[in-house]
Design goal:
Layout (H helix, E strand, L loop, with lengths): L23 E6 L3 H8 L1 H4 L3 E7 L2 H7 L4 E4 L4 H5 L3 H22 L3 E6 L4 H9 L3 E5 L10 H6 L5 E4 L12 E2 L3 E4 L7 E7 L7 H12 L6 E5 L11 E3 L4 H10 E6 L3 H9 L3 E4 L13 H11 L4 E2 L3 H11 L6 E4 L2 H12 L7
Parallel strand pairs: 1-2, 1-4, 2-3, 4-5, 5-6, 6-7, 9-10, 9-12, 10-11, 12-13, 13-14
Antiparallel strand pairs: 8-15
Length: about 350
Amino acid sequence: MTSGPSRKLDENLDGRPAPRAGLRICLAASGGGHVRQLLDLQAIWSRYDHFFVTEDTALGRTLSGKHRTYFLPHYAWGQAKLGAPFKMLARAWSSFFKSLSIIARERPDLIISTGAGAVIFPILWGRLFGARAVIIESFARFEAPSLFGRLASPFATHMVVQSPKLAPYYPRAEVFDPLRMMDTPAPPKSELLFATVGATLPFDRLVDTVAALKSEGTITERIVMQTGIGGHAPDGMEVSETLPFDDVQAILRDARIVVCHGGTGSLITALRQGCHVIAMPRLSRLGEHYDDHQAEITEAFRQRGLVLVANTPDELRAALAEVRTRQPVLATTDPQALIAYLEGVIADIPVSGR
């Protein structure tokens, strides 16, 4: 097999490089928006032998039905900040050895990771076993780098950021801003409000606020609510702790209004489907998240005119009144430039024998 940077690639009829025989890709991301961005890159990784390393969430379980998938325990530095340092250390210790087992078994040639902390060890072990690593700083970071990005960037063979404001933090990074407005008309919708807190963690402030406004009559729409594992479950509503990703997509096709946490995966998925989106970011001062990056995300989306932000019942009442008098805005992420960049990265990888 001919390999190496000087090798001339064969091409498909559409001009794209032909798939590299024998190349194996590890797709490493924690739950929610991190792994959803990897799904946006399917046009490149689906052409090769690949496997996922992620967390055991509803989306992760959906992936495992379609792709070779390994689960790692969730842990993050914020767990120590919130008073659970030993829980964090125990899960990190478990992840360290599980990651070694996965990488030693699979021996990937390339790791593509969108973060976050739960997948730092597969990157470290992968580099020790000779894999190249593309680290894609979180789309959730518009103003300042993430802890994961700062920790992982020294081990990256290729670094990517998705906001020009992050370029000074990563001098050798390539910049790809994927956010795009869509000019397609909004699809027909039902009188349905979907309230979702994200993949796993409960967010009772959002759930209780929506339930209170339904009880007082402000929300007249039918409500479908996803509460997170162990979250409050209001009476008289269609409630699920978690939902498979395909079910979420089906609900979003019908929902006129979405009230969601400030995760990029939830925001973009709803905006793609032409929903009115009202975001309630998790706040660290209330113990709802490890930091305030969701407030940063929602403010950036609000400034672009994509979402309304509500942190209190009064703000949610006002937001609901506003969305009922305007047309929805559609937006998506366009990964084509990043996919083209990744094709160039892959072209330069010598494929190891197995």
